[in-house]
Task: inverse folding
């Protein structure tokens, strides 16, 4: 019996010492690792009260904007307060905080990394009311309740709820009705569009002889390799995905109007001079010559519709970005306008 007591005593003693040693080693591993994401820290002095943090928070009652009372120095400071009993430490608030430095500091949220594609903030989804046919397929496809709403017979995306999954864009049956627009670098995107338009205009104008001799019922088909503008586009905006989509959208919707002028047919009747709204067409009595300044030309086509001697031809060019023999090219189709009905 005494050996049983001794055994129990030894067992209790060993457990006790092991507990003590384990407790010491556990103390070592409770040090926060570098990647540990704690509750957000608030640096209230930087807050601009935009409310982005409260909109982004997925946990009800975890974050609230409060405002100090006004005093002699001015309005009271507004700033976020974190309720640590509701905060799930997702880090969304710190991610969206636009101030520099940030008002909310939090460890990195690995779920927000681009490869996880939770919030690819490059795009914002919006409905083009003009094109939308109110089929509501986007609403059915949207995984977030209330992210797409119908109000006053209009479909709209509630940006505060949209998680940028892109489901709506895939579901929409009308090209362009739901748009996934890149919201950053808008000026760069405009510069790329200008580059596309100017390059295409110059290219088409260099084919004036072919246009002049084109029979009025025929199409003129041209190709411009994308490589002619690609490097310049990437210099403006070094993001291949955005640059390509901007070029694709631009060429998809673009129509360029081209006026050609065959001076040899001009009979100096000068009807076009009076019709031109910008003064781009002038008559020089000394040279007995009617001239057109293409820089002033609006391409309104008044001269084309007025000239009785077919000096002016008016073409519409349409574009499509496509692949030919493994190379991306802008396909160009030009057709003479039948506006003048001659
Ligand atoms: S992108 Fe996704 S979350 Fe946003 S509105 Fe479209 S379907 Fe809804
Ligand atoms: S799917 Fe497109 S067309 Fe249909 S309601 Fe939505 S935005 Fe409008």
Result:
């Amino acid at each position: 019996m005494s050996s049983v007591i001794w055994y129990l005593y030894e067992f209790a003693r060993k457990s006790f010492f092991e507990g003590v040693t384990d407790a010491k080693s556990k103390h070592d591993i409770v040090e926060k690792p570098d990647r540990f994401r704690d509750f957000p820290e608030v640096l209230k002095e930087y807050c601009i009260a935009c409310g982005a943090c409260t909109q982004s928070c997925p946990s009800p009652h975890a974050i609230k904007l409060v405002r100090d009372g006004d005093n002699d120095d001015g309005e009271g400071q507004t700033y976020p307060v974190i309720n640590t009993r509701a905060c799930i430490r997702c880090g969304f608030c710190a991610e969206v905080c636009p101030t520099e430095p940030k008002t909310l500091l939090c460890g990195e949220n690995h779920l927000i990394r681009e490869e996880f594609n939770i919030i690819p903030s490059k795009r914002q989804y919006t409905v083009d009311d003009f094109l939308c046919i109110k089929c509501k397929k986007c609403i059915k496809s949207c995984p977030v309740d209330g992210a797409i709403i119908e109000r006053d017979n209009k479909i709209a995306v509630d940006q505060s709820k949209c998680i940028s999954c892109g489901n709506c864009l895939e579901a929409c049956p009308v090209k362009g009705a739901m748009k996934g627009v890149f919201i950053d670098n808008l000026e760069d995107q405009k510069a790329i569009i200008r580059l596309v338009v100017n390059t295409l205009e110059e290219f088409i104008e260099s084919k004036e002889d072919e246009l002049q001799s084109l029979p009025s019922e025929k199409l003129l088909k041209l190709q411009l390799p994308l490589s002619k503008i690609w490097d310049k586009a990437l210099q403006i905006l070094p993001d291949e995905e955005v640059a390509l989509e901007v070029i694709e959208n631009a060429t998809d919707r673009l129509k360029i109007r081209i006026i050609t002028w065959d001076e040899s047919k001009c009979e100096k009747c000068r009807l076009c001079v009076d019709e031109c709204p910008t003064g781009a067409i002038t008559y020089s009595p000394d040279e007995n010559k009617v001239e057109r300044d293409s820089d002033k030309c609006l391409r309104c086509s008044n001269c084309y519709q007025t000239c009785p001697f077919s000096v002016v031809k008016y073409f519409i060019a349409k574009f499509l970005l496509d692949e030919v023999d493994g190379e991306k090219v802008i396909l160009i189709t030009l057709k003479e306008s039948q506006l003048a009905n001659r």
